[in-house]
Amino acid sequence: QAKSKGKHSFCLFSLDDQEKMKYRMHLERELRKAIHNNELHLYYQPQVCLKTHQLKGAEALLRWHHSELGPISPAVFIPIAEETGLIEPMGLWVLNKAVNQLAGWRSEGIMLDSISVNLSLSQFKEERFVERAKDIILRSGLSPNLLKMEITESVALLDESDLIDKLNDLKAFGVQLAMDDFGTGYSSLHYLQALPIDYLKIDQSFIRQIHSDSSSHTITSFIIQLAKSLNLKIIAEGVETQVQLEFLHQHDCDECQGFLYSPAIPANQFQSLYQRMNAIHT
Ligand code: C2E
Ligand code: MG
Ligand code: MG
Ligand code: MG
Hints:
Elements: H1 9-36, E1 40-49, E2 55-66, E3 70-72, H2 74-84, H3 87-107, E4 114-119, H4 129-140, E5 147-152, H5 160-173, E6 176-182, H6 188-194, E7 199-202, H7 204-208, H8 214-229, E8 233-236, H9 242-250, E9 255-256, H10 267-277
Parallel strand pairs: 2-4, 4-5, 5-6, 6-7, 7-8, 8-9
Antiparallel strand pairs: 1-2, 1-9, 2-3
One magnesium ion (MG) binds next to β6.
């Protein structure tokens, strides 16, 4: 409700901040519990080849359904996990779960080319992250080149050369690297030059406006061109309409992801979708 402005407004504002802080601390406690009680789940969103309309890969996305608060978005709890260090065990859990899921699928004839996992740059601060990641991949029996790691250049880096060394190490091991949300982050063109990446993911904000905003149209086709000339593969995120799909097809985009095909879904549903879309010819 509207309160009169003036001498009370400062006080009201800081109360609001206190509420937010309380809620955040509450979420942090709940997140610790959720990790402990295995209440986090991985869902999988299909990545589709634009030429063949076949399902090529899956992006693993974290889901948290709180018993009282309901579903909580990763956009809310990932930053909390990053600030509290919870992202380290959580990130390794995601990696382990995802590579084992793909290994399992492939043994059942679900021959995806890749599984994508999102990584926070803060995970790379942990000295033994690369070693642990390699260990998880080796133990799953999955060939490392079937794993794609997605990173977002959202923050200025404290130690860029350390990150580059670690990414080179993972790449030499065989892992593929993708730059997520391309076009929106901090200093993207610089990272394009500095990091050993294989894939660019065009941010969904450009795709969403392809047909309503001519600059999004121009930026999207420019990013595709840029990727091609740097020999990078390109994935469009957030594809929701046939019109967007056609635009991307015409501009020679490699793969797309979005609600047009499917949101992120549980593993068993993903398997059925694969069987429908990639009807096995014998
Ligand atoms: P992201 O990696 O860029 O993932 C794409 C987000 O867009 C996902 O949101 C996905 O559900 C949503 N999306 C996909 N297709 C469409 C579409 O057609 N329309 C719209 N409107 N949205 C679409 P989600 O799952 O809420 O994840 C948000 C972000 O949280 C992710 O962005 C990623 O940065 C982060 N995240 C999720 N899981 C993990 C994780 O396991 N580890 C880390 N470090 N970050 C994660
Ligand atoms: Mg991603
Ligand atoms: Mg993205
Ligand atoms: Mg993102």
